[in-house]
TrEMBL record:
<feature type="region of interest" description="Disordered">
    <location>
        <begin position="228"/>
        <end position="255"/>
    </location>
</feature>
<keyword id="KW-0131">Cell cycle</keyword>
<keyword id="KW-0963">Cytoplasm</keyword>
<dbReference type="InterPro" id="IPR006671">
    <property type="entry name" value="Cyclin_N"/>
</dbReference>
<dbReference type="InterPro" id="IPR013763">
    <property type="entry name" value="Cyclin-like_dom"/>
</dbReference>
<comment type="similarity">
    <text>Belongs to the cyclin family. Cyclin G subfamily.</text>
</comment>
<comment type="function">
    <text>May play a role in growth regulation and in negative regulation of cell cycle progression.</text>
</comment>
<keyword id="KW-0195">Cyclin</keyword>
<protein>
    <recommendedName>
        <fullName>Cyclin-G2</fullName>
    </recommendedName>
</protein>
<dbReference type="GO" id="GO:0051301">
    <property type="term" value="P:cell division"/>
</dbReference>
<feature type="domain" description="Cyclin-like">
    <location>
        <begin position="1"/>
        <end position="74"/>
    </location>
</feature>
<keyword id="KW-0132">Cell division</keyword>
<feature type="compositionally biased region" description="Acidic residues">
    <location>
        <begin position="229"/>
        <end position="240"/>
    </location>
</feature>
<dbReference type="InterPro" id="IPR039361">
    <property type="entry name" value="Cyclin"/>
</dbReference>
<dbReference type="Pfam" id="PF00134">
    <property type="entry name" value="Cyclin_N"/>
</dbReference>
<dbReference type="InterPro" id="IPR036915">
    <property type="entry name" value="Cyclin-like_sf"/>
</dbReference>
<dbReference type="GO" id="GO:0005737">
    <property type="term" value="C:cytoplasm"/>
</dbReference>
Amino acid sequence: METFVLAVNILDRFLAIMKVKPKHLSCISVCCFQLAAQVVEEDCDIPSIHDVIRISQCKCTVSDIKRMEKIISEKLHFEFKATTALTFLHLYHTIVLCHSSERKEVLSLEKLEAQLKACNCRLIFSKAKPSVLALCLLTLEVETLKSLELFEIALRVQKHSKVNDKDMLYWRELVSKCLADYSSPECCKPDHKKLVWIVSRRTAQNLHNSYYSVPELPTIPEYGYMNESESEDSCEDMSSGEDSLSSSPPSDLEVSFFFDDYKPKLKSRSRRLYPL
């Protein structure tokens, strides 16, 4: 969650000072995510550039990513860390729980983070102050819980944060509408149905290198290349190893049922042509 929020913050700051073409936006987004992961995540958890390109399908090369990362880093003066709305949300949540007698499970931080993620996907909230956006999410959730104690604490937090009522009401209305749309049945949210990916042949080959490869199986010897004695010995071994109702060797019809390449040998004809 922290990586996602920081990536959005880096993207917003870069777009605020640079004009980019729509075709370059996917590459810029991947670079912002990669830069955020380098700041937040451990070295062992940072995905490789090849994996990020393959998963995101951004149609750019490794050199494109590195070149764009250099441009973003120079424009932002290598200042990637920032105080985001998630920072204020964690701070406000801790303050409310410290001054409240309610159980910690009542005010769910996971739910607030999910709501913040939904708001970060809207362009309009890139103009909102992080402190105001976090406070709007907190007060709306407190109103849903209908707890007078939590509501009074939230008002005191607003007073100490010096957030005026005008900005609060304006952004609260937008946040409320965003969350209502997000919770509506018309919203295209992931469900429990199995997702179907429609990809091209080239993408499928990149995702699954062995998808179109033919497995190398050992060659099955044909009975036509075996001499008469080996054929009789193999038939005797098959008949002796099977618990069948008859002790006689399998017929040509039975053998041809399991082996498509089986060709019965005409022993009687060979005796006529080559009599002993």
